[in-house]
Amino acid sequence: MIVHVTTWHGELVQVRVATEEQTDSAASTSEAATSAPNPIAPEPKELLWGAGSFLVFLVLMRLYMFPKIKKGMDARYNGIREDLEQADATRLAAKSDVAAYEAALVGVRAEAAARVDKARQTLDQERTALMADATARNGVKRQAAEAEISAARVAVRDQVAAAVASVTDRTAQLAVGKKPDASVVAQAVQQAMQTGGRS
Amino acid sequence: MMSNVIAFEFPPINELLRWKDVWAAGSLNKVGLIAVASALIGIFIFMSAAQKNPKVAPTGTRNLAEVAVEFIEDNIIMQTMGRDGLGWTPFLLTLFVFIYLCNLPGIIPLLQMPATARMAIPMFLAVLVWVIFNFSGIKHQGFFTYFKNVLFPPGVPKALYILVTPIEFISTLIVRPFSMAVRLFANMLAGHLLLVIFALLSEALLQARDKILIPVGILPLFMLLFLTAFEVLVGFLQAYIFTILAAVYIAGATHPEH
To answer: Which candidate in A61, A64, A76, A81 is best for mutational testing of the B interface (most B CBs within 10 A)?
Structure first.
């Protein structure tokens, strides 16, 4: 069927071009439409099948399916809840263990620090004692060395004085032709060495 | 002046809504078949879920069933009835699943007809809800107390009862089932007719003799695709609205202080 709209005496007119069969069909459709049942009215068979299906579904859901599913869900949720509670308890126990360990660790650390301090004090005391001992021994050795040096110095000085007296005695003998008094020479040499040769 | 006009024959409304019987006359038509299929699919899903081991993490039908149960409990019952209403879960769950499965065929190719786009099923469900909430109200409060609370709401000045009582009588006892049924039926029928209109328009344009009209046919085709996606949402929303209204009415009847 072809539909056209055209103007006729200034009015819009819809023109339908159709075959005879289509015209018959349209007429019968139009007739059927006027005598057709209300499209909104519920059909008894739809009502029956719809209601029956729903009620069967509802009865099965109420008596079997929902209780079983819900029971399973509750059991699993309770299991999960218990697992969570157990996990919480384990976590708390672990926390208390950690706290106890940390407390023990603090005690051990304090004890270790005390022992280290004590060892350090002992070490300091021993070092001080050893230092004092070494210092004392060094003092003794120093005094001995000083005495030895002093004795050696005196001996060398006596030897130098004797040598100088001998040289002076020989020089004076050669100069005056007679041997000078040894005690006078020795005294003169002693005086000269004490004053460093300065007059 | 003469001009060509694009037009197509829109089929008579009964051709879109009334379906021939599958076998014997007056036995079962497409709408009845969809209702039966919806119930069978629902039974299959929940029966299959009930058979699975509940102790392992849920998958497949079990997961679907548990999601549906939790949705009804958390988003409908706890919001409207509170913990006391959990006993209504099987009824509301069945109501929601059945309506949703009856709505879905509106967008499934070949089926393309929501069973709720006919008045029978929404009307039955609305009347069932009406019977249930009135029965619950009578059971919980007693016949006279229930109707007294419905028709003479506490806290309203006595002079206003002249106005309030007829309104409450009409709104609670007459309009509620009517509005529930019409809301579901009209929404699904409108969606169905929109899809039909855009499908016919797409077909008419894509098969037009005038080749220039063929590309224009893409526009209603896109609209058809959009409306099909939209109908998925509408189908879910209408099932949800019907179920939550049922819950609200039952809660109101069993707890008049609400």
So the answer is: A61
Q: Is A11 helix (H, G, I), strand (E, B) or coil?
A: strand
What single-letter DSSP state applies at residue B108? S
pTM of the model: 0.70
Coil/strand/helix, residue A153:
helix
Across the interface, of B4, B9, B98, the residue whose CB is closest to A57 is: B98
Phi, psi at B2, each rounded to 5°: -130, 135
Counting one residue from chain A and one from chain B, the pairs whose CB atoms sit within 8 A come to 148
The burial class, CB within 10 Å (0-12 / 13-18 / 19+), for A110 is exposed
B152 secondary structure, DSSP code:
S
- Global ipTM: 0.89
Residue-by-residue DSSP string for B36-101? HHHHHHHHHHHHHHHHS-TTSPP-HHHHHHHHHHHHIIIIIIHHHT-GGGGGGHHHHHHHHHHHHH
Given a contact cutoff of 8 angstroms between Cβ atoms, the answer to whether B73 and B79 are in contact is no
Q: Tell me the pLDDT tens digit for each residue of A104-120.
A: 999 999 999 999 999 99
Distance CA B15, CA A59 (A): 34
Which chain B residues have a beta carbon less than 8 Å from that of A54? 35, 39, 94, 98, 121, 124-125, 128
